[in-house]
């Protein structure tokens, strides 16, 4: 059976994992909005995808920018909260500048929260929607919060908590909300990682297009539910 064409919004969609996700969704026939802090880069990324894609400037830390995007693009069916920062590798909790923690939370947690507040109510009203929050293995209590990046770990652990809260709020509405740990992916942050953005995008897109009986409020690694 052919996949239903949906409208998908990918934050941080101009490069890396975000662009790979946008490209894969577009390749499967979905209309894609590529959002990025740099509007020119977003539009250039959308042009590379072709017809059915559009670029939009978006700073997820700016409530007015989120509201402006919602007014511009209207309702979406799929929201991939991919925009994120990792600013504190090698820091320790007792020594890190809390201004750095604040900046990290503004993007990784509150940015996704602003997007959910703007776009999830439309999904609930229509009775269908998918939200995927891009998390991290460093957020996992099950794995012992590995790594030396306290602000990043706390921000992604908090994003996981937000995922559960949104899933509970939307239970029975046709909206599924999940977090995914894509694993280590080659990027400017981790150029040594073995997994390509395209490989990670396969699993993210599956989470973004789950069937109606799929999980909600889960932490996913590839196609399996893992411990928080």
Automatic annotation (TrEMBL):
Name of this chain's protein: SDR family NAD(P)-dependent oxidoreductase
Alphabetically ordered keywords of this record: Oxidoreductase
Pfam families, alphabetized: adh_short
Organism expressing this protein natively: Streptomyces spirodelae
Similarity-based family: Belongs to the short-chain dehydrogenases/reductases (SDR) family.
PROSITE patterns: ADH_SHORT
UniProt-listed InterPro entries: NAD(P)-bd_dom_sf (IPR036291), Sc_DH/Rdtase_CS (IPR020904), SDR_fam (IPR002347)
Residue ranges of the TM segments: none
């Amino acid at each position: 059976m052919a996949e239903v064409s949906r409208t998908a919004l990918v934050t941080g969609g101009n490069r890396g994992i975000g662009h790979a996700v946008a490209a894969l969704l577009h390749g499967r026939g979905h209309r894609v909005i590529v959002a990025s802090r740099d509007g020119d880069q977003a539009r250039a990324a959308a042009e590379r995808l072709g017809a059915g894609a559009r670029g939009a400037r978006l700073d997820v830390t700016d409530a007015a920018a989120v509201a402006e995007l919602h007014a511009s693009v209207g309702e979406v069916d799929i929201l991939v909260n991919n925009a994120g920062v990792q600013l504190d590798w090698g820091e320790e909790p007792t020594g890190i500048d809390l201004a750095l923690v604040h900046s990290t939370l503004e993007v990784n947690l509150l940015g996704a929260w602003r997007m959910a507040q703007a776009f999830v109510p439309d999904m609930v009203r229509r009775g269908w929607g998918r939200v995927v929050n891009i998390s991290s293995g460093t957020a996992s209590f099950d794995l012992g919060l590995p790594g030396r990046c306290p602000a990043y770990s706390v921000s992604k652990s908090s994003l996981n908590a937000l995922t559960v809260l949104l899933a509970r709020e939307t239970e029975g509405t046709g909206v599924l909300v999940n977090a995914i740990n894509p694993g280590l992916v080659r990027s400017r942050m981790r150029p040594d990682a073995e997994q390509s953005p395209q490989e990670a995008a396969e699993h993210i897109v599956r989470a973004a297009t789950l069937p109606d009986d799929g999980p909600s409020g889960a932490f996913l690694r590839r196609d399996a539910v893992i411990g928080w």
